[in-house]
Amino acid sequence: MAYNHGVAKAIFEAEWKKKAAEYRKHGMSEEKIASMREFEEEVFKSDRKFYEGLTDYILDEHSPDLIYEDTYQINDFIWLDLIEDEEVYKQLMALPREWLVIFTLHKLEDYTQKELSSIFSTTQQNISLRIGKIAEILKITCKTADFLG
Prior knowledge:
The chain is mainly alpha-helical. It has 8 helices and no strands. The chain folds into 2 domains: 5-51; 68-148, Arc Repressor Mutant, subunit A, CATH 1.10.10.
């Protein structure tokens, strides 16, 4: 289902109304409530950019120095050389390049899923699903399993 900003905004507003009432009930100041709403609205806007495909891979002061577009080329995925099964290799090469980067960073360079979600401006769940999909294709066997740990 496609992203519908109007529906998402209505859901956000309804949920925020409930949260604000709960915060007031527990004695939170209007200033703090406004600050929390501002933060959550920024998160909401970033989600919109993600779902509409408008995000860039932007690094901030908390992100490792990684610009994957400039760092990795397909021939940099040395673990792919260990794939002996032609069908498995074809399945991996059919995946988006970003998925291979994520898998490589996670398995070989010990990036956490949290770090990767920050770098790629997506949720940890999406990172986990991408890593899991590649692991499923590989079925972590033979030399690949030994190499990837």
